[in-house]
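As a next step, the fold was encoded as tokens, giving this record:
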Amino acid sequence: MRRGAWLHCLLSAYLWLIAWIPLGNWNRQRGGTFLTALLAGKSMETGDVGMLVFVSLPAILFWVAYKRNSFWFGVGASVVDAIWLGLQIQSWWIPYIFGTHTRWRLEYANAPTTKLLPSFGHHVAPDGMHLVISILLISALTRGVSALWAMKAGQVHSQVRARWLPKNPDSTH
């Protein structure tokens, strides 16, 4: 559970970092970062706050699951992770693997962002920022689910032992 909690916190910290701090071509997005917007006199919009809550929710839920040894908080975090991973796959990986004709995606292929994978034809590579998000998200989700699986298996094992083994191992009745 602990590794799953730390991976979720690492993912959340990375997302807060790229949302707030301008890192050049690494996180160059249409709207800029929150810090540059605030310094320019703009206010944070409800959608911005909602996004920060959404990316923080799995880390909070999984940390509570770890600290309280709570299976259901971990399940909640995993559900949010799975939904988010589905959105990442739909937004970045399907257009990369199968190609796209969506105008903004084709323009994005030529945008000044750092790309670690090659774009070719209508196959638009996700930028490095989104690639790292995907890697961290998959890592947090798989580690979290495996921790939950182990937790549930341990609970079942404990219940079986409690039911079938004598309370006093020295007892021979």
Observations:
- Residues 128-164 form the longest helix (37 residues).
- The chain has one domain: 2-164.
- The chain has a mean pLDDT of 87.
